[in-house]
Amino acid sequence: MDDLETPYDEEISDWALEKGLSLDQARDRFIFAALEMGDVAPLCCFLLRGYVPALAVRQHIGLMLAREQSLADSIRARVHYRLEIKPRLLRRGPRRDKFEVALRNRRLGRRMAKLIEEIGPGSYLSAAKTVSAETGWSEQTVRDAYDDQPAKGKRSTK
To answer: Is residue 85 part of a domain?
Structure first.
C-alpha cells in the first residue's frame, strides 16, 4: 500500500497497539465499525489508497449492497444500513434494472440469431416464435431484443 496519509492512520495505529493487532487487522475492524454505524468515509479512503479489505468486510459490503428482497430476514436484521447506487447528479439516471434487461436482451438476441442462422433466410418470425415459446417472453420482446443487437454478422431476414 502506498504512503498516502489518511485522517484515520493515527487512530488505526492506536487501535493496533491497544489491541495487539496488525495494522491490516486494525484497519479492517475500523472500516467494519464505521460501516456498522453507517459511515462509508473510511472505506472510501482506504479503497482509494489501494487497500483491499478482509473477506469479512467485503462480504458485509456485499450484504449492504444487496437488494432487500434478496436477503433472508435473519441477515437483514444484522445489517443496519444499506448502500444504494444513485446517480451523482440530479438528472434522471439509468433505470436500476437496465443491466438485467440488457443481459436478457443479449441472451434472447443471440438465441434468435442462432436459430435464424440454422433455419435460414426468411425465418425471422418463426425464430421469434420459437424463442418466445422456449423462454416465456413475448414475441415482441424477443424481436426487440434481436433488433437491438449489434449488426455484427446479422443479415436482414425480415
So the answer is: no
User: How many structural domains are present in the chain?
Assistant: 2
- For residue 35 the three cell numbers come to 460501516
Residues 6+ apart with CB under 8 A from 115: 123, 126, 127, 130, 131
pLDDT digits (tens, 9 = 90+) for 61-105: 888 888 777 777 777 777 778 887 776 666 565 555 677 788 888
Nearest to 106 by CA among 133, 129, 131: 131
Q: Give yes or no: residues 21 and 60 share one domain.
A: yes
A 10 A CB-CB count for 153 gives: 8
- Write down which residue in 43, 78, 113 finishes a domain: 78
The full 3-state SS of the chain, as one line of letters, equals CCCCCCCCHHHHHHHHHHHCCCHHHHHHHHHHHHHHCCCCHHHHHHHHCCCCCCHHHHHHHHHHHCCHHHCCHHHHHHCCCCCCCCCCCCCCCCCCCHHHHHHHHHHHHHHHHHHHHHHCCCCHHHHHHHHHHHHCCCHHHHHHHHHCCCCCCCCCCC
Residue 87 lies in a domain: no
pTM of this prediction exceeds 0.85: no
